[in-house]
Write a structure and sequence with these properties.
It contains 13 helices and 13 strands. By secondary structure, it is an alpha/beta fold. The mean pLDDT is 94.
Length: 357
């Protein structure tokens, strides 16, 4: 490690609310605090205007002899091509590639992108001097492809990044005393939000009509899937299902503040940052026990395996009504937050950068 050297990061895109972008920003600030020069780069048309001051256009990147370049990989993009052509020490951070089969019938474009990302993952990994994965689940996937020496660098998360003040308009909109279930994340088929819709519909009609479901997340990945969810909500004849789409941090903070329970029904997650965000806001978490979710939770929250709508709805009811269980879940989440607060990302990065493969 050479103080004053440059370690840049290359991303497929930069967006507000994106866990990969947020983790890259944390890594950049940590590297700078360690004495490195460090910037973020992404394709210019994939940088949200609000992040223009935080992320530079990939067209301005020049492959020079520097200390290193980090590439955050989860989908195939021009960023991967630039990364593989870089002259410096290359470090791959693997965030997981969603299996393409989830998008079949919903988005041919995403199927092609994810197929390409999975097909070329070994090529990108072979070009890398170091391979880091944001969860043991992701590391296991790389090891199954024959790559040894994969190191786990859990997705960086800092509570002090969640500084947005709750939007008063959203707080007012959700002021009615309804039991509020929330799910957060892009509306993609692997999230299996249809399961949550069916569970909520059963709960709403069988247990508590004074309830609502709020679905927050970008709707751009698979518009056909979003259309299916809207159709299903109509078919279930259940009111109070709000599909809010992408929201700004102030709105998201308000949704968390009003939520009684965060529910993740996803079938594939490399880590799942919204679980940690919910913990920060004091919201109990219920998540499908798959992929990197157990690592993100670290023993906190509540997990379930493959429940039909009625049983999932009953579990949602239990976690909102049973004070003893609810308090136990919240206590487990506070313990997890203390663990995350005590994490020394700078020490982890220092050890990883000093590692000799």
């Amino acid at each position: 490690m050479i103080p004053g050297s440059r370690i840049d990061q290359i991303l497929a895109g930069a967006a507000i609310g994106d866990a990969t972008t947020q983790s890259a920003l944390i890594v950049r600030e940590t590297l700078r605090s360690m004495g490195y020069r460090s910037d973020l780069y992404a394709p210019g048309d994939r940088i949200m205007p609000e992040l223009a001051a935080q992320c530079r256009d990939l067209a301005d990147y020049r492959a020079e002899t520097r200390y290193g370049v980090i590439h955050h990989y989860g989908v195939w993009s021009p960023a991967a091509e630039v990364y593989m052509g870089a002259a410096e020490r290359k470090i791959l951070v693997y965030h997981n590639v969603t299996p393409p089969h989830f998008f079949k019938g919903y988005s041919d474009r995403m199927v092609a992108l994810l197929d390409e990302a999975r097909r070329r993952l070994p090529e990108v990994a072979r070009a890398s001097r170091d391979i880091w994965a944001v969860s043991g689940f992701n590391a296991g996937e790389l090891r199954s492809l024959g790559f040894t020496g994969v190191k786990v660098f859990p997705l960086p998360f800092r509570r002090d990044a969640l500084t947005a003040k709750p939007d008063p308009g959203i707080l007012a909109k959700l002021a009615a005393p309804l039991t509020t279930f929330l799910t957060v994340g892009r509306l993609a088929p692997n999230k299996r939000i249809e399961r949550l819709l069916r569970a909520f519909a059963w709960y709403h009609h069988a247990i508590n009509p004074f309830s609502r479901l709020v679905i927050v997340g970008s709707q751009h990945s698979a518009p056909r899937y979003v259309a299916y969810l809207r159709w299903l909500a109509h078919e279930l004849k259940t009111p109070n299902i709000d599909m809010e789409g992408f929201v700004w941090p102030e709105a998201l903070a308000a949704y968390y503040q009003r939520a009684d329970l965060l529910v993740s029904t996803s079938d594939h997650e490399g880590y799942c940052a919204p679980l940690l965000e919910a913990m920060h806001y004091g919201v109990p978490v219920l998540a499908h026990d798959i992929g990197g979710i157990p690592e993100a939770l670290g023993g906190a929250g509540a997990r379930y395996r493959e429940l039909p709508p009625r049983l999932l709805g009953e579990l949602m009811h239990t976690l909102t009504e049973k004070d003893i269980l609810r308090r136990a879940v919240l206590a487990s989440q506070e313990k997890r937050l203390h663990e995350l607060d005590a994490r020394r990302i700078d020490s982890e990065l220092r050890d990883l950068l000093n590692h000799q493969p």
